[in-house]
Amino acid sequence: MGPLGQKYVETILRGTRDKKKSDVDYMYDVYLHKDGLMFCNKRFDVDDADNIIINGVRYVDTPGLYELIFKRIPNDLLYTEGDMSTSTSTRAYW
């Protein structure tokens, strides 16, 4: 896992005592499950190049896609329309 993945995934792995004060979206997005990381109801992983893998489908890493997947309120300066489209497609078939 590269630096981008570490920045976001380590937040999930570390957890937080007060999830209400965290900027991570613990309600609908990536969470730690007994079987590993999950995204909604799908397996979630990050490869060495920081690409996001959801249920075996690889998505090219961008700071914006990470923001949209991990943050409760994403920084709109970081994501693009392409990131929005990719994020929406990852959530299909919940």
Note the overall shape: globular
Beta-strand percentage range: 15-25%
SS elements, strand count:
5
Query: Would you list the SSEs in sequence order as H and E?
Result: HEEEEEHH
Averaged pLDDT, please?
A: 81
Helix content: 25-40%
Count structural domains: 1
Poorly predicted spans: none
Widest sheet: strand ordering: 1-2-3-4-5
Short synopsis of the structure:
This protein is of the alpha+beta class. It contains three helices and five strands. Helix 1 (3-14) packs parallel to helix 2.
Tell me the layout of helices and strands.
Blueprint (H helix, E strand, L loop, with lengths): L2 H12 L15 E4 L2 E4 L2 E5 L5 E3 L2 E3 L3 H8 L10 H10 L4
Antiparallel strand pairs: 1-2, 2-3, 3-4, 4-5
Helix pairs in contact: 1-2, 2-3
Summary keywords:
single chain, 94 residues, alpha+beta, five-stranded antiparallel sheet, 5 strands, 32% helix
What does this structure look like?
With 94 residues, the protein is of the alpha+beta class. 32% of the residues lie in helices and 20% in strands. Strands 1-2-3-4-5 form a 5-stranded antiparallel beta sheet. The termini are far apart.
